[in-house]
Write a structure and sequence with these properties.
The chain has about 270 residues and is an alpha+beta fold. It folds into three domains: about 55-145, no CATH class; about 150-210, Antifreeze-like/N-acetylneuraminic acid synthase C-terminal domain (Type Iii Antifreeze Protein Isoform Hplc 12, Alpha-Beta Complex), CATH 3.90.1210; about 215-270, SH3 type barrels, CATH 2.30.30. It has three helices and 14 strands. It has helices spanning about 10-20, 25-45, 60-75; strands at about 55, 90-95, 105, 105-115, 120-135, 140-155, 170-175, 215, 220-230, 230-240, 245, 250-255, 260-265, 270. Strand 9 and strand 10 form a beta hairpin. It is elongated. It starts with 8 loop residues before the first helix and ends with a strand.
């Protein structure tokens, strides 16, 4: 009798596959399906909510909203600068809604707060932090703060490049906080200047809608005034850069010194100390 020959694993593989009636490509397809299923189940585990977390019920949501409202009642709302003819601003605060799909773990103590750098102006938010609970979560409640005051709105359509006339504007209540660009409140600031974008009738004017006023060009002689507490000193110089309103202009004085000054008028600039 001949001794049994030792078979290598590679040699036995075709026999084993034949024994179960499967071809090699069928086995690999089955293994791939199993692998995909395992990955899918693992993904579900990764995105499953943390233990103890639950969709926020209405009573708890109402409690969080009450905390936001209580905090807002304690805050100083935006108001006009105290001047003799200042009209009080009308502030309108509207609370948004937390995402209905939000899941939060139970918490014994929640504190409402204003995040650092956040101001009650326009679209903003109030923070809610869990300070006593198994999970120290932190969420933000959206808040809208509208600040209504008298501002300038267009009476007629204003097209890009058109010069603004006094009859093109009227005073109306506008939301000062609707844009990051300040609202135009004084007609003298914009009459005679051109607009850079289309403005529809009834739409409030913003400073970004008006083309920047250029008081002098580079190379022009400029009268510079330096103002401080109780004194004012004048000097002459030459503009090295254009004198655009609201932007620093570099001016070389007669002695050779170069300073940065604010353009304030026709070939005029000033430095406030």
């Amino acid at each position: 009798m001949k001794p049994n020959a030792t078979r290598s694993p590679s040699a036995s593989s075709p026999t084993l596959l034949a024994d179960v009636g499967l071809a090699a490509d069928q086995v690999w397809a089955a293994l791939l399906c199993v692998l995909v299923w395992l990955l899918f189940c693992g993904g579900l585990a990764l995105f499953a909510p943390a233990a103890g977390a639950q969709t926020l019920p209405s009573p708890e949501r109402r409690e969080l909203k009450d905390k936001v409202e209580s905090l807002l009642h304690q805050q100083a709302m935006p108001q006009a600068e105290p001047t003799a003819n200042a009209t009080p601003w009308r502030v309108e605060v509207t609370l948004g809604q937390l995402d209905s799909r939000l899941r939060l773990a139970p918490c014994d103590k929640v504190r409402a707060y204003l995040p650092d750098g956040v101001r009650l102006w326009g679209n903003t938010r109030v923070g809610l932090r869990c300070e006593q609970g198994a999970v120290r979560w932190n969420v933000f409640w959206p808040v809208s703060v509208k600040v209504w005051a008298q501002g300038l709105v267009a009476v007629v359509p204003l097209r890009p490049g058109a010069l603004v006339g006094g009859a093109d504007l009227r005073l109306a209540e506008v939301d000062l906080a609707a844009s990051t660009s300040p609202a135009v409140l004084n007609a003298a600031e914009v009459v005679g200047r051109s607009v850079v974008r289309s403005i529809a009738p009834g739409q409030g004017l913003r400073q970004e809608d008006i083309k920047t006023r250029r008081w002098f060009a580079a190379g022009d002689p400029v009268r510079l005034v330096v103002k401080g507490g109780g004194f004012s000193v004048g000097s002459e110089g030459t503009a090295l850069t254009p004198g655009d309103e609201g932007r620093c202009a570099r001016i070389r004085l007669d002695g050779g010194r170069v300073v940065c000054a604010d353009p304030v008028g026709e070939r005029q600039a000033e430095i406030l100390l």
